[in-house]
Amino acid sequence: VILPIKESWPGEDGAPEWVVPKGMPLSSRRILFLHGGGYESYSPSDPYRPLTTRLAAVTGLPVLALDYRLMPAHPFPSPLRDALFALDWIWSHGPPIENVGAATHPPTAEFSAAPADAVYVVGDSAGGGLALCLIAAIALKELAPGVPLPIHPPPPTALALLSPWNDLTASLESYHTRRWAPK
């Protein structure tokens, strides 16, 4: 079940969505999904809806698919700010608990205010790089060198990275040879 977040989302931009496994009881564990697209394209509802719905169905957990701000209109650290905000938010907000599985869209329920027991961050491609950046920012307590974090969310319970884009310079050997070469 796709539950778009519109008016109630306190984030700075975009409209994230909850993907809730149909017919499964809501869990106090949650997944935050960060999509790919080179930081300049896509959203959770573009080519990523099949992945997020499958992720929710297989894990039995609700997935918050973040629509972070994109470049060039919103350069770094905008996506990182949005990811930090979403991580902080998901620890204390679950998906709407009423009308889940109902035919009415959008649901009328308020967000579940129950705190999470665990939050897993899943990132694909640029979203995987953003997940690594998120962890580094929390560990270093900096948004960027010399720039303190605007908020201090609890760290995620675990990360799952799908082909993370972590070399933005595209200068490693694999970019030219297309093969992995251990040193």
Provide structural commentary.
The chain is of the alpha/beta class and about 180 residues long. About 25% of the residues lie in helices and about 20% in strands. The chain contains four helices and ten strands. Strands 1-2-4-3-7-10 form a six-stranded mixed sheet. Strands 5-6 form a two-stranded antiparallel sheet. Helix 2 (about 80-90) packs across helix 3 (about 125-140). The chain is globular, with a radius of gyration of 17 Å. The chain starts with a strand and ends in a 6-residue tail after the last helix. Mean pLDDT is about 85; it is low at about 100-110.
Topology record:
Layout (H helix, E strand, L loop, with lengths): L1 E3 L12 E3 L9 E6 L14 H11 L3 E4 L11 H15 L1 E3 L14 E2 L5 E7 L1 H15 L1 E3 L2 E2 L9 E5 L11 H4 L6
Parallel strand pairs: 3-4, 3-7, 7-10
Antiparallel strand pairs: 1-2, 2-4, 5-6, 8-9
Helix pairs in contact: 2-3
Q: What is the first-to-last residue Cα distance?
A: 46 Å
Task: Report helical residue fraction.
Answer: 10-25%
Strand order of the largest sheet: 1-2-4-3-7-10
Q: Please compute the radius of gyration using only Cα atoms.
A: 17 Å
Task: Average the pLDDT over all residues and give the rounded result.
Answer: 85
Instruction: Tell me the major beta sheet.
Output: 6 strands, mixed
Structural class: alpha/beta
Number of helices: 4
Shape: globular
Beta-strand residue percentage = 15-25%
Poorly predicted sequence stretches spanning 5 or more consecutive residues: 99-109
